[in-house]
Amino acid sequence: MILGGTTEATALAQTLADTGIAGIVSFAGRVDRPVRQPLPQRVGGFGGVDGLAEYLNAHRITHVVDATHPFAAQMSRNAIAACAQASVPLIALTRAPWQPRSGDKWTHVPDIAGAVAALDQPAKRVMLAVGRMHLAQFAPNPQHFYLLRLVDPPKAALPLPKTQVLVSRGPFTQADDDALMRTHSIDIVVSKNAGGTGAYSKIIAARALGLPIIMIDRPAIPDRAEATTLAQVLGWLAHPGTVPSKTERGV
Predict the structure, then answer these.
(1) Which CATH architecture has domain 106-216?
(2) Total-model pTM
(3) Which architecture characterizes domain 2-95+221-238 according to CATH?
(4) Buried-most residue among 89, 119, 215, 251 (CB within 10 A)?
(5) What DSSP assignment string belongs to 171-188?
(6) d(CA 74, CA 61)
(7) Fold identical between 2-95+221-238 and 106-216?
(8) Can you list the alpha helix ranges (DSSP code H) found in the chain?
């Protein structure tokens, strides 16, 4: 079973389908129109650790690949505990976090609350790239204009008085995000450190424009087997007892 929701999960599902390995892709259900998968898919929660363990046993799942977003920390923690409970091997298909480069102006914060605190300043034009789940947490700073790029249209009134919503699904290019930031006169970007290439264009664009970024660090996840490439996952599926070394992961 692939715990999905990322481009890496979709690529893995395609690889498994192409090689004739049976599997299922599970989505949390936070996106109205998830990307169609080349394997069967299910949508929705499991009911916590016990529910996931019961699902694994009931459906005779032999391997689990956690390819969720790096900030889906609760799902990842549940997967670790449920796989241990059900005695099912688990590996995470992870993205290396972004690292600051020359020209970057990052302020690191540990979580969403830290980003909210960092925005306690005079009015700015903010590109808020944190997803729709966390928007209400930014309500204490209504002085800012917020540019939001969401996969689905908001289902209720936004908690921020000055916003513009763009409904669009990535990946985007540097040219896309450079034009977006210029058009909306963005002063500052708020971003989760998602890693990978699919959302990196806004980081490159902000660097080129000299814009500061409030960078939200990743949540802590308990130790687990990890891979960063599809080849490593396939090797693990063939030999679940082998875990990619830190050298192989490029760490």
Answers:
(1) 3-Layer(aba) Sandwich (3.40)
(2) 0.85
(3) 3-Layer(aba) Sandwich (3.40)
(4) 215
(5) ---HHHHHHHHHHTT--E
(6) 21
(7) yes
(8) 7-18, 48-58, 73-86, 112-118, 174-183, 201-209, 230-238
DSSP code string of 194-240: --SSTTTHHHHHHHHHT--EEEEPPPP-----EESSHHHHHHHHH-T
Distance separating alpha carbons of residues 166 and 153, to the nearest angstrom: 8
Give the domain ranges of the chain: 2-95+221-238, 106-216
Q: What percentage of the chain reaches a pLDDT higher than 70?
A: 92
**Which residue is associated with the tokens 């005695």?**
87
pLDDT digits (tens, 9 = 90+) for 88-144: 999 999 988 999 999 999 999 999 999 999 999 999 999 999 988 899 999 999 999
Amino acid at 248: E
Whether 38 has a pLDDT exceeding 90, the answer reads: no
